[in-house]
Amino acid sequence: MKDELIPEQYVGKETNIEEELSGGNERAAKEMFEESRTRLLNVNRWHDLAGGPSAAFQLTDEKGISVNRAVVEGDYFKIDIPGPGNVEGKGYDWVRVEKIEEEHDEDHDLVLIRVRPAKEPSSGEHTTHFFTSEATSNFVVERRGSHIKAAVYGRNEKPNTETSNIVDKTRNTMVALGAFAGFSEIQWKKLVKGLLGKN
Question: Is 41 in contact with 72 (CB distance < 8 Å)?
Fold first, then answer.
């Protein structure tokens, strides 16, 4: 993993969840990478990969309209987290896809999706996520030789208490504290295993 692809950690919590798999040989590993890449880019199926109870992810376009296709830069994830929803986010937490990176050569393949907490795209005025907009989540599938890795790298995770909505402020703090307590790590561990076809 090239360090420059993952934002620098400077505030709040850092999360590093990784799962590896051996393909046995390079040809098999390339095939496994392509399958994992397809799973990663199909955000609407992430809930199926992670299983319940976990957040459900719906891919939307830049206007917040649900779409059923591979993710592209500028899309949003509409996230339905178990428990109370984000009022200003119309019941959901929202992140925007700010980067999709792919690298391919003989010995190495990589695909990365970086998302950042964002406003609800149709009418939001404030970041509608339990983390502030300083946070990023970086989802990676990578092949080196005959080995495959799936990972989630969270950076600069801290509770979003900047909203003027007191209900959201309280809710965001509670959800973020739950994330800090390890609930999100449990989900990410299940997701990375699912991306590798291990669930």
Answer: no
